[in-house]
Every structure is written in structure tokens, then in C-alpha cells.
Amino acid sequence: xxxxxxxxxxxxxxxxxxxxxxxxxxxxxxxxxxxxxxxxxxxxxxxxxxxxxxxxxxxxxxxxxxxxxxxxxxxxxxxxxxxxxxxxxxxxxxxxxxxxxxxxxxxxxxxxxxxxxxxxxxxxxxxxxxxxxxxxxxxxxxxxxxxxxxxxxxxxxxxxxxxxxxxxxxxxxxxxxxxxxxxxxxxxxxxxxxxxxxxxxxxxxxxxxxxxxxxxxxxxxxxxxxxxxxxxxxxxxxxxxxxxxxxxxxxxxxxxxxxxxxxxxxxxxxxxxxxxxxxxxxxxxxxxxxxxxxxxxxxxxxxxxxxxxxxxxxxxxxxxxxxxxxxxxxxxxxxxxxxxxxxxx
Length: 345
Fold this sequence. Notes:
globular
């Protein structure tokens, strides 16, 4: 744990230093830029709650990728699973109108089912025909993009709109605000806690982790490797689908063209930064959301283009991963030297 914390903090510091050097080379003031970035993402209740709300799809898709990678399956289908979950929640909100206490859980379940359906398809193709889930999930992303684009441009399009989008869902399906905080943030936190408990404390989670580390050992130890593979695919797809449902239900309350944005790809990036740690995924997800949220305000105040935030994200990934690997080597060498000294004495 100490190693992960130290390497993570060191990686973030180095990344910010590298980002500052890039800004200096481009003629910008790093301190003023970082100050504006923090001000518009964390400087007060309003910016902080906006950052937390923006972190919801990043954390949930990151959680999906982290659990998949740590358990063995290479599920890269979060973009498609997110938009399918979003579409399922949208259609439920268009054609079903119940009191909020029933409508909101129903739409969340539909979003979960939509994501799980899309990931389960990849799982079935793997189980039935031995097709690589790495390739299948990537290809299904494109199919999901085209299918949802067709759905919102033809059968479910809002005829009063000037661009492809659905009509608004029933207002009873909107995620409410609890004080200044949107309820979608609470759903995200509950999801992280539940998945951490399953992954770290339940037998199923133990089998997933063992399978991810050594599938042969897990099989010889009596684990149902095929069943666990399918379970992981369904769970991770469900998390990505939930992210899509919360994007719709938290606002704009309809399925818009480009709704998925880069949420899922950023989530995969966050899982890599977190080294598949679930708590670390939450922390890095909020951190990346803060950078993205503060980018627009940074551009308004300092005239630094918001694309600098994307450069900073890329630098963060490279530096944090490299620092983690190098720090691991250094810590191992120091531990070996300490043990050698102890044996010598």
C-alpha cells in the first residue's frame, strides 16, 4: 500500500512538472494555469460538486475496466456498453412513467441490463466459438455506435430537434439533487463500495482475482474458470451500462448524438493509471474529472487552450505508469539490500 501511494504521488508530481515545462515552452504561465484549473474544478461547493458529477462515468467505466483486467478478460467494450445502457435507460424513460421511487430504480436496472447484454454477447462468442473478447468487444463498440446513432436519428428521434436526439425522458426518471450534490454521485460511491466488497471479501471475487493472476492455477484449484469469465463480463458490462444510464438521468435527460464522448476510453485509461485497484480508480477518476472540469475555466482566465488538459492527461498516464514500474524496481532493490545486511549481521 505504501509503495502504491508513494509511486502514485511521485508520478502525479512529475507529470505536473512535465506539464509545466510544456507550458513554459509554449509561452504560458504554469502557476497561473494550474491555479485556474484548481479554482474551476475544486474551488468551492459548486465547482466541486460539478467535478464529482463529471467523475461518475469516468469512475464507473474505470471500475469496469479495472475489474475485467484484474480478473483475466480483456474487456475493451466499455464505450459500446455505455451507450447501450444509456439507450436502454432512455427508452424506458420515454415509454414508462412511474413515481420517482419506482421510475429511477427501473431505469437504473434497464441501464445495467443494456450494458450487461452487450458485454454478454462478447462473452457468449468467446464461450461458443473461442473468439477473442479483446477483438469482439472492440468491434462491438463500432456496432453500438452505429446502432444508437440510427436509433436516435430515425425511430426515436425528437422531430422538433435540429440534430439527432431523443425526446426528454419522463421527469420522474431524472436523478434528483441532494442539496448541491447530484444523486448520481451517491450511486457511483455505492457501486464502488459494493464492487470492492465483492472483489476483496467474497469467494467469487477471490476466484476472479486468482484467475486473473494464473488461470491454470485457478482451474486446478477447483475454480469454475468459464463461469467466472462470463460473470466478470456481465458485471463489467453492467457497470459500464450503469454509467451510461446515469449520464442520461443526471442530465441532459435524453440521448444526444455523441453522448458517450470519451468517457469510456478515459475510464480505461484511469484503470491503467490505477493499476486495476478499485479504490485507486475512484481517486484517479475524480482527479481526471477535476482536470477536465477545470479546463474550460482555465481557458477563459488564462487564455491557455483547453487542449492543454488533454496533453496533461496523456502525460499523467505515461509518467504514472512509468514511475510505478521504476519505483517497484527501486523498492525491490532496497528491500533486497536490507535483507542482505540483516543476514550479514
